[in-house]
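Record minuted for completeness.

…
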Amino acid sequence: MSAKREHACRADTVVYSRRVFDVYLGLTASGYHLANPIRAGLLIQAVLTGNWPKTALDYFREARIDDGRVNPYWPRGSILAAVAWLTECGDLDPDLPSICAYLATLRNVSPAERGCDVAKWALALPDHILSLESCSEYGNALSAYALSVEQEISSNGLDYSRKVRHAVAKLARLFPGPPQSVLTVLNPLQADELTDVIHTDRSACIVTSHLRPESYLHELIELHLEAVLPEWRPAIARRRRLLDAVYESMNQLSYAWDRTDTSWVNVFCETLTRSLAAWVLAGHSPPQLEEQVGQIVGGGFIYARPIVEAIAGGASVQPLTVEWLERCLDACDAVGRAEA
Protein backbone atom coordinates (compact mmCIF):
# COMPACT_ATOMS: atom_id res chain seq x y z
CA MET A 1 0.00 0.00 0.00
CA SER A 2 1.37 3.41 -0.89
CA ALA A 3 0.29 7.02 -0.46
CA LYS A 4 -1.63 8.21 -3.49
CA ARG A 5 -3.25 11.49 -4.39
CA GLU A 6 -6.45 9.98 -5.67
CA HIS A 7 -9.98 9.44 -4.50
CA ALA A 8 -12.28 6.48 -3.99
CA CYS A 9 -11.21 2.84 -4.73
CA ARG A 10 -10.72 0.46 -1.75
CA ALA A 11 -12.05 0.95 1.75
CA ASP A 12 -8.53 0.95 3.19
CA THR A 13 -7.06 3.46 0.75
CA VAL A 14 -4.44 5.74 2.27
CA VAL A 15 -3.80 9.04 0.52
CA TYR A 16 -1.98 12.27 1.12
CA SER A 17 -3.22 15.75 0.52
CA ARG A 18 -1.06 18.74 -0.27
CA ARG A 19 -3.90 21.10 0.64
CA VAL A 20 -4.47 19.52 4.07
CA PHE A 21 -0.71 19.70 4.60
CA ASP A 22 -0.80 23.39 3.66
CA VAL A 23 -3.45 24.05 6.30
CA TYR A 24 -1.45 22.35 9.04
CA LEU A 25 1.74 24.00 7.88
CA GLY A 26 0.03 27.34 8.48
CA LEU A 27 -1.41 26.21 11.80
CA THR A 28 1.93 24.82 13.01
CA ALA A 29 3.91 27.87 11.94
CA SER A 30 1.42 30.08 13.79
CA GLY A 31 1.40 28.16 17.07
CA TYR A 32 -0.21 24.72 16.66
CA HIS A 33 2.41 22.74 18.57
CA LEU A 34 0.42 19.56 19.17
CA ALA A 35 2.12 17.15 16.75
CA ASN A 36 4.13 14.17 18.03
CA PRO A 37 7.80 15.26 17.85
CA ILE A 38 8.96 11.64 17.64
CA ARG A 39 6.75 10.95 14.64
CA ALA A 40 7.15 14.28 12.88
CA GLY A 41 10.32 15.86 14.28
CA LEU A 42 12.03 16.60 10.96
CA LEU A 43 8.80 17.90 9.46
CA ILE A 44 8.13 20.15 12.45
CA GLN A 45 11.67 21.50 12.21
CA ALA A 46 11.24 22.23 8.49
CA VAL A 47 8.06 24.18 9.24
CA LEU A 48 9.28 26.11 12.27
CA THR A 49 12.52 27.23 10.62
CA GLY A 50 10.66 28.72 7.65
CA ASN A 51 10.22 32.44 7.13
CA TRP A 52 6.48 32.50 6.45
CA PRO A 53 4.42 35.63 5.65
CA LYS A 54 3.09 37.44 8.71
CA THR A 55 -0.32 37.94 7.12
CA ALA A 56 -0.66 34.17 6.66
CA LEU A 57 0.44 33.45 10.24
CA ASP A 58 -2.05 36.00 11.58
CA TYR A 59 -4.78 34.34 9.51
CA PHE A 60 -4.09 30.83 10.82
CA ARG A 61 -3.87 32.07 14.42
CA GLU A 62 -7.57 32.87 14.15
CA ALA A 63 -8.24 29.12 14.11
CA ARG A 64 -7.43 28.95 17.82
CA ILE A 65 -10.25 29.56 20.34
CA ASP A 66 -9.00 30.00 23.91
CA ASP A 67 -12.11 29.47 26.03
CA GLY A 68 -11.02 26.42 28.03
CA ARG A 69 -12.08 23.75 25.55
CA VAL A 70 -9.86 20.67 25.41
CA ASN A 71 -8.99 21.22 21.76
CA PRO A 72 -8.65 24.95 21.11
CA TYR A 73 -8.46 24.32 17.35
CA TRP A 74 -11.91 22.74 17.21
CA PRO A 75 -13.82 23.41 15.05
CA ARG A 76 -11.95 26.03 13.03
CA GLY A 77 -8.84 23.97 12.32
CA SER A 78 -11.03 21.11 11.15
CA ILE A 79 -13.14 23.46 9.04
CA LEU A 80 -10.04 24.73 7.24
CA ALA A 81 -8.87 21.16 6.59
CA ALA A 82 -12.31 20.23 5.25
CA VAL A 83 -12.56 23.25 2.95
CA ALA A 84 -9.02 22.59 1.67
CA TRP A 85 -9.71 18.90 0.99
CA LEU A 86 -13.13 19.38 -0.59
CA THR A 87 -11.97 22.13 -2.92
CA GLU A 88 -8.91 20.06 -3.86
CA CYS A 89 -11.21 17.13 -4.73
CA GLY A 90 -13.63 19.35 -6.64
CA ASP A 91 -16.49 18.59 -4.23
CA LEU A 92 -16.81 22.17 -2.99
CA ASP A 93 -16.81 25.39 -4.99
CA PRO A 94 -14.56 28.04 -3.41
CA ASP A 95 -17.29 30.66 -3.06
CA LEU A 96 -19.17 32.02 -0.07
CA PRO A 97 -22.61 30.44 -0.73
CA SER A 98 -21.05 26.99 -1.19
CA ILE A 99 -18.96 27.22 1.96
CA CYS A 100 -21.94 28.53 3.96
CA ALA A 101 -24.05 25.63 2.69
CA TYR A 102 -21.32 23.13 3.62
CA LEU A 103 -20.93 24.48 7.15
CA ALA A 104 -24.68 24.21 7.65
CA THR A 105 -24.39 20.42 7.25
CA LEU A 106 -22.00 20.00 10.19
CA ARG A 107 -24.38 18.69 12.85
CA ASN A 108 -21.52 18.04 15.31
CA VAL A 109 -20.56 21.72 15.40
CA SER A 110 -22.33 24.40 17.39
CA PRO A 111 -24.52 26.63 15.18
CA ALA A 112 -22.66 29.62 16.60
CA GLU A 113 -19.39 28.24 15.21
CA ARG A 114 -20.48 27.44 11.67
CA GLY A 115 -22.16 30.65 10.56
CA CYS A 116 -21.39 32.75 7.53
CA ASP A 117 -18.82 34.81 9.45
CA VAL A 118 -16.74 31.63 9.76
CA ALA A 119 -17.44 30.91 6.08
CA LYS A 120 -16.10 34.35 5.12
CA TRP A 121 -12.94 33.61 7.11
CA ALA A 122 -12.54 30.17 5.44
CA LEU A 123 -13.11 31.74 2.02
CA ALA A 124 -9.76 33.53 2.36
CA LEU A 125 -7.86 30.25 2.77
CA PRO A 126 -6.66 29.84 -0.85
CA ASP A 127 -4.95 33.22 -0.84
CA HIS A 128 -3.01 32.41 2.33
CA ILE A 129 -2.09 28.94 1.07
CA LEU A 130 -0.72 30.56 -2.06
CA SER A 131 1.42 32.89 0.04
CA LEU A 132 2.85 29.92 1.95
CA GLU A 133 3.60 28.01 -1.24
CA SER A 134 5.45 31.02 -2.69
CA CYS A 135 8.07 30.88 0.08
CA SER A 136 11.47 29.34 -0.68
CA GLU A 137 11.22 27.05 2.37
CA TYR A 138 7.98 25.48 1.19
CA GLY A 139 9.61 22.81 -0.98
CA ASN A 140 11.69 21.45 1.90
CA ALA A 141 8.64 21.29 4.16
CA LEU A 142 6.59 19.50 1.49
CA SER A 143 9.37 16.95 0.91
CA ALA A 144 9.59 16.31 4.66
CA TYR A 145 5.83 15.74 4.72
CA ALA A 146 5.97 13.21 1.87
CA LEU A 147 8.85 11.35 3.53
CA SER A 148 7.02 11.18 6.86
CA VAL A 149 3.91 9.76 5.18
CA GLU A 150 5.88 7.13 3.27
CA GLN A 151 7.67 6.04 6.45
CA GLU A 152 4.38 5.61 8.30
CA ILE A 153 2.89 3.51 5.49
CA SER A 154 6.04 1.41 5.17
CA SER A 155 6.08 0.70 8.92
CA ASN A 156 2.40 0.17 9.65
CA GLY A 157 0.47 -0.08 6.40
CA LEU A 158 0.10 -3.87 6.16
CA ASP A 159 -0.96 -4.27 9.80
CA TYR A 160 -3.39 -1.40 9.42
CA SER A 161 -5.03 -2.98 6.36
CA ARG A 162 -5.32 -6.34 8.08
CA LYS A 163 -6.98 -4.89 11.17
CA VAL A 164 -9.32 -2.74 9.09
CA ARG A 165 -10.49 -5.71 7.02
CA HIS A 166 -11.14 -7.74 10.17
CA ALA A 167 -13.08 -4.88 11.78
CA VAL A 168 -15.18 -4.29 8.68
CA ALA A 169 -16.12 -7.98 8.52
CA LYS A 170 -17.23 -7.98 12.16
CA LEU A 171 -19.14 -4.73 11.80
CA ALA A 172 -21.05 -6.20 8.84
CA ARG A 173 -22.87 -8.48 11.31
CA LEU A 174 -24.55 -5.42 12.78
CA PHE A 175 -24.87 -3.31 9.65
CA PRO A 176 -25.75 -5.42 6.64
CA GLY A 177 -25.41 -3.85 3.25
CA PRO A 178 -22.64 -2.70 0.94
CA PRO A 179 -19.45 -1.36 2.56
CA GLN A 180 -18.99 2.36 2.76
CA SER A 181 -15.94 4.09 1.28
CA VAL A 182 -13.60 5.68 3.81
CA LEU A 183 -10.28 7.29 2.90
CA THR A 184 -7.40 7.90 5.28
CA VAL A 185 -5.42 11.12 4.78
CA LEU A 186 -2.14 11.05 6.68
CA ASN A 187 -1.22 14.34 8.33
CA PRO A 188 1.78 13.99 10.68
CA LEU A 189 1.44 17.61 11.84
CA GLN A 190 -1.82 16.79 13.61
CA ALA A 191 -2.08 15.83 17.29
CA ASP A 192 -1.98 12.04 17.64
CA GLU A 193 -5.21 11.84 19.63
CA LEU A 194 -7.25 14.03 17.25
CA THR A 195 -8.96 13.13 13.99
CA ASP A 196 -10.64 15.38 11.45
CA VAL A 197 -13.59 13.89 9.54
CA ILE A 198 -14.72 15.14 6.14
CA HIS A 199 -17.76 13.93 4.21
CA THR A 200 -18.11 14.09 0.45
CA ASP A 201 -20.87 12.91 -1.86
CA ARG A 202 -18.84 9.82 -2.72
CA SER A 203 -17.08 8.87 0.50
CA ALA A 204 -15.85 9.98 3.86
CA CYS A 205 -12.32 10.99 4.73
CA ILE A 206 -10.46 10.82 8.03
CA VAL A 207 -7.45 13.05 8.56
CA THR A 208 -5.10 11.57 11.15
CA SER A 209 -1.46 11.80 12.13
CA HIS A 210 -0.84 8.06 11.80
CA LEU A 211 -2.55 4.83 10.77
CA ARG A 212 -5.10 4.02 13.47
CA PRO A 213 -7.68 1.29 12.82
CA GLU A 214 -9.87 2.76 15.55
CA SER A 215 -10.10 6.08 13.68
CA TYR A 216 -11.09 4.33 10.46
CA LEU A 217 -13.65 2.20 12.27
CA HIS A 218 -15.06 5.18 14.16
CA GLU A 219 -15.86 6.96 10.92
CA LEU A 220 -17.24 3.86 9.23
CA ILE A 221 -19.64 3.40 12.14
CA GLU A 222 -20.72 7.03 11.90
CA LEU A 223 -21.54 6.52 8.23
CA HIS A 224 -23.76 3.56 9.09
CA LEU A 225 -25.44 5.44 11.93
CA GLU A 226 -26.23 8.35 9.64
CA ALA A 227 -28.58 6.01 7.75
CA VAL A 228 -30.60 5.06 10.86
CA LEU A 229 -30.42 8.36 12.74
CA PRO A 230 -33.55 9.91 11.17
CA GLU A 231 -35.59 7.00 12.53
CA TRP A 232 -33.81 7.02 15.89
CA ARG A 233 -33.67 10.75 16.55
CA PRO A 234 -37.11 11.12 18.24
CA ALA A 235 -36.43 8.27 20.67
CA ILE A 236 -32.99 9.65 21.55
CA ALA A 237 -34.29 13.20 21.91
CA ARG A 238 -36.97 12.07 24.37
CA ARG A 239 -34.15 11.12 26.77
CA ARG A 240 -32.56 14.55 26.70
CA ARG A 241 -32.47 14.56 30.49
CA LEU A 242 -29.56 12.10 30.25
CA LEU A 243 -27.42 14.97 29.01
CA ASP A 244 -27.48 16.57 32.47
CA ALA A 245 -25.14 13.95 33.96
CA VAL A 246 -22.46 14.50 31.32
CA TYR A 247 -23.04 18.04 30.14
CA GLU A 248 -20.03 19.72 31.74
CA SER A 249 -17.49 17.22 30.43
CA MET A 250 -19.16 17.00 26.99
CA ASN A 251 -19.27 20.78 26.72
CA GLN A 252 -15.56 21.00 27.48
CA LEU A 253 -14.90 18.36 24.83
CA SER A 254 -17.15 20.32 22.39
CA TYR A 255 -19.58 17.41 21.87
CA ALA A 256 -22.33 19.44 23.55
CA TRP A 257 -22.73 23.20 23.20
CA ASP A 258 -26.09 23.70 24.92
CA ARG A 259 -28.77 21.55 26.57
CA THR A 260 -30.94 21.08 23.49
CA ASP A 261 -32.02 17.87 21.78
CA THR A 262 -29.39 18.44 19.10
CA SER A 263 -26.53 18.44 21.60
CA TRP A 264 -27.84 15.34 23.35
CA VAL A 265 -28.28 13.42 20.09
CA ASN A 266 -24.70 14.32 19.19
CA VAL A 267 -23.40 13.13 22.58
CA PHE A 268 -25.34 9.86 22.42
CA CYS A 269 -24.21 9.11 18.86
CA GLU A 270 -20.59 9.83 19.75
CA THR A 271 -20.85 7.52 22.76
CA LEU A 272 -22.51 4.80 20.69
CA THR A 273 -19.85 5.11 18.00
CA ARG A 274 -17.02 4.74 20.50
CA SER A 275 -18.77 1.82 22.17
CA LEU A 276 -19.29 -0.02 18.90
CA ALA A 277 -15.67 0.56 17.91
CA ALA A 278 -14.48 -0.88 21.23
CA TRP A 279 -16.70 -3.94 20.79
CA VAL A 280 -15.38 -4.58 17.28
CA LEU A 281 -11.70 -4.00 18.06
CA ALA A 282 -11.74 -6.15 21.20
CA GLY A 283 -12.57 -9.21 19.12
CA HIS A 284 -13.35 -12.13 21.43
CA SER A 285 -11.35 -10.79 24.37
CA PRO A 286 -13.56 -9.71 27.32
CA PRO A 287 -10.56 -8.27 29.22
CA GLN A 288 -9.60 -6.13 26.24
CA LEU A 289 -13.19 -4.98 25.83
CA GLU A 290 -13.41 -4.08 29.51
CA GLU A 291 -10.15 -2.13 29.27
CA GLN A 292 -11.36 -0.17 26.27
CA VAL A 293 -14.75 0.55 27.82
CA GLY A 294 -13.02 1.71 30.99
CA GLN A 295 -10.98 4.17 28.96
CA ILE A 296 -14.09 5.50 27.22
CA VAL A 297 -15.95 5.93 30.51
CA GLY A 298 -12.88 7.54 32.04
CA GLY A 299 -12.99 10.07 29.21
CA GLY A 300 -16.45 11.20 30.33
CA PHE A 301 -18.66 8.97 28.16
CA ILE A 302 -20.39 7.28 31.09
CA TYR A 303 -23.10 5.66 28.95
CA ALA A 304 -20.59 3.51 27.10
CA ARG A 305 -20.84 0.63 29.55
CA PRO A 306 -24.60 0.02 29.29
CA ILE A 307 -24.37 0.41 25.52
CA VAL A 308 -21.61 -2.19 25.21
CA GLU A 309 -23.45 -4.53 27.56
CA ALA A 310 -26.54 -4.19 25.38
CA ILE A 311 -24.51 -5.08 22.28
CA ALA A 312 -22.38 -7.87 23.70
CA GLY A 313 -24.64 -9.31 26.37
CA GLY A 314 -26.70 -11.63 24.22
CA ALA A 315 -29.93 -9.66 24.52
CA SER A 316 -33.11 -11.13 23.14
CA VAL A 317 -33.47 -8.38 20.53
CA GLN A 318 -31.38 -7.68 17.47
CA PRO A 319 -28.78 -4.98 18.24
CA LEU A 320 -29.24 -1.58 16.60
CA THR A 321 -32.95 -1.95 15.98
CA VAL A 322 -35.48 0.52 17.34
CA GLU A 323 -36.49 -1.97 20.06
CA TRP A 324 -32.85 -2.43 21.02
CA LEU A 325 -32.38 1.34 21.11
CA GLU A 326 -35.20 1.76 23.62
CA ARG A 327 -33.74 -0.93 25.89
CA CYS A 328 -30.32 0.61 25.56
CA LEU A 329 -31.66 4.03 26.50
CA ASP A 330 -33.41 2.49 29.51
CA ALA A 331 -30.06 1.12 30.68
CA CYS A 332 -28.45 4.51 30.13
CA ASP A 333 -31.28 6.06 32.14
CA ALA A 334 -30.30 3.97 35.15
CA VAL A 335 -26.70 5.15 34.89
CA GLY A 336 -27.81 8.76 34.47
CA ARG A 337 -29.97 8.61 37.60
CA ALA A 338 -27.08 7.11 39.58
CA GLU A 339 -24.80 9.95 38.48
CA ALA A 340 -27.33 12.67 39.22
The longest strand covers residues 182-186. Residues 193 and 209 are 8 Å apart (CA to CA). The chain has two domains: 14-199, 223-339.
